[in-house]
Amino acid sequence: MRAIVGPLVIVALLVASWALFVRGNPGGISDAKYAEFKQLAPPRILYSCTRKPTNESLLQQQRECAKVGRSGCEQKAYDLGESETKTVVEFVGSQGTSTYDELLRDATRNCARNIGSMGSGKLKVVAADKD
Fold this sequence. Notes:
The chain is an alpha+beta fold.
């Protein structure tokens, strides 16, 4: 009997930890916003949008760096472009009249817009309920 109890305890711990981590928030969004997303009626989409600074803003910073007479301005502009990359997790949901395709089109349009010095983003669907 003891030979069975040990493996059963290990399996129970694995199942409990799996359930704890899988059922929660997918990450990148606050628990309050995720709860708001879960309350929406399907269809609904939780997506991330990753944006980088526009080439124009990086070129402007490179020019300002060169005016001051610093060296390595190209590398600094490249590093700044990489470090200022931002990922934002948002969601869209149906108001009772939208289809999944319409919501996906809205999310893609929102992510494709330039915002300030940030260029269009790359959309990634994190979670979706089509029905």
